# Entry
Amino acid sequence: MKRFEADVLALGDALRARAEKLAAAESCTGGLIAAACTSVAGASDWFERGFVTYSNEAKSECLGVPAALIEAHGAVSEPVARAMAEGALAHSKAQWAIAVTGIAGPGGAVPGKPVGTVWLALAHAGQLTRAERLHFDGDRTMVREQTLRRALAQLRSALERA
# Structure
């Protein structure tokens, strides 16, 4: 996590300056976002909690994502990513939430959702949740690390605009 330290420190400084906290809801990254955030001293000032909701059941049980939503759109979809981010806000004391769900590979691809497909959603209390579809090349490790990098960048950018 050392290679992400500068990004995490800047993110933490921005959240601390606003007296706000972050929650992460992760599927394909399996806790990498939370691990990166908590790899720096003082993270408890701004990182509230992380949810690793790898299974569909965990998405429903921990974050309140409706099973019907997952069934209708698939776990790797815009509606599910948005629901994960909003669920992380609802089930925490954070003002910001980031959610990622994707297909890191090497298997798991379905028509229209190749390996490397990731949905990233960002929620801020009282604002419209934003989501974006991403596609990353490379092996499983590369897809997960690129997802982490993009999540940190999106958070920093959103905080700069807020």
